[in-house]
Write a structure and sequence with these properties.
single chain, protein histidine kinase activity, about 25% helix, 4 strands, Heat Shock Protein 90, 2 helices, globular, alpha+beta, four-stranded antiparallel β-sheet
Length: about 100
């Protein structure tokens, strides 16, 4: 999971204008992490940012967020990207261990 968060935060640092916000909330059986920035957002197809080799209009290899999605799913989690009025948000939901 460390690599997944490094990938997302690295992208936020690269594209943010001046503000990055990280929020976590715990519910009964899961934790949700939101990473939000005030950068350029994810373009017209935010759901595609996790596709291997998809770069949209930006420079990059297109594998960082694809790897991130694989890591999250191997931990039985879910990951989404969405555009904001100014910027973008990545939402990761992971199950909590029992007990």
């Amino acid at each position: 999971m460390k690599q997944a968060f490094l990938n997302i935060i690295g992208n936020a640092l690269r594209f943010a204008s001046s503000h990055i916000e990280i929020r976590m909330r715990k519910e009964e059986s899961k934790v949700t992490v939101e990473i939000e920035d005030d950068g350029i957002g994810f373009g017209e197809n935010p759901e595609r940012v996790f596709d291997r080799f998809y770069t949209g209009d930006q420079a990059g290899s297109g594998i960082g967020l694809a790897i991130t999605k694989t890591i999250v799913e191997k931990h039985h989690g879910e990951i989404y990207a969405e555009n904001l009025k100014k910027g973008g948000r990545v939402i990761i939901t992971l199950p909590l261990p029992p007990g």
